User: Which sequence fits this backbone?
């Protein structure tokens, strides 16, 4: 759970807060909804999405923030299908490849590829996922392109 107003003064209008509640979940759960989602028929998907969100909100309310559910004015819910829609990431992967020991940091997929002048940067390549890592990935990739150029 992240409360943005704790780190960024004025993020929300006065007297309000913006809270992010996040849980990791595999794509399998959403796969049955994929066809309808792509076809614009989202009734069942939306019901499930609301159900999942309510579960997370109830947990946060029970353990951290009493009264949370009745204080919500605006609610946005994202799922792995949302990630596919907006980022094109395979099965909505939010962090790129699995971060295994042999595929993270400088052992992750390299910037250069077997195809001349095709380079990779971002969460799927080295050093890995996350805002700061992908910024570094772009800088490192640019450096490599310049060296080889
Ligand atoms: C819900 C969620 C919460 C997260 N929280 C955090 C966090 O708290 N801290 C953290 O460090 N990281 C977090 N991450 C991870 C972080 O967002 C990613 O690792 C990072 O944004 C990946 O950056 P990227 O540049 O590799 O890819 P992206 O940010 O996915 O950028 C790729 C871009 O390419 C575009 N694109 C795709 N296909 C095409 C195409 N064919 N033509 C043109 N454009 C295309 C997409 O629209 C997108 O804008 C989170 C991710 C998610 C999903």
Assistant:
């Amino acid at each position: 759970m992240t409360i943005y107003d704790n780190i960024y003064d004025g993020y929300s209008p006065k007297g309000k807060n913006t809270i992010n509640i996040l849980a990791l979940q595999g794509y399998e759960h959403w796969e049955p909804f994929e066809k309808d989602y792509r076809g614009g028929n989202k009734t069942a998907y939306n019901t499930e999405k609301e159900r999942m969100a309510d579960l997370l909100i109830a947990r946060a309310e029970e353990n951290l923030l009493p009264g949370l559910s009745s204080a919500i004015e605006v609610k946005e819910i994202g799922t792995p299908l949302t990630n596919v829609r907006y980022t094109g990431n395979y099965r909505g992967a939010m962090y790129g490849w699995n971060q295994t020991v042999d595929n993270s940091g400088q052992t992750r997929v390299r910037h250069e590829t077997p195809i001349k002048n095709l380079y990779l940067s971002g969460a799927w390549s080295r050093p890995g996922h996350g805002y700061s890592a992908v910024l570094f990935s772009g800088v490192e990739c640019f450096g490599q392109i310049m060296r080889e150029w």
Q: What stands out?
A: The two ends are 44 Å apart (CA to CA). Strands lie at 2-3, 19-20. Residues 22, 78, 83, 86-89, 94-95, 122-123, 129-131, 134 surround flavin-adenine dinucleotide (CB under 6 Å). Residues 43-63 form the longest helix (21 residues).
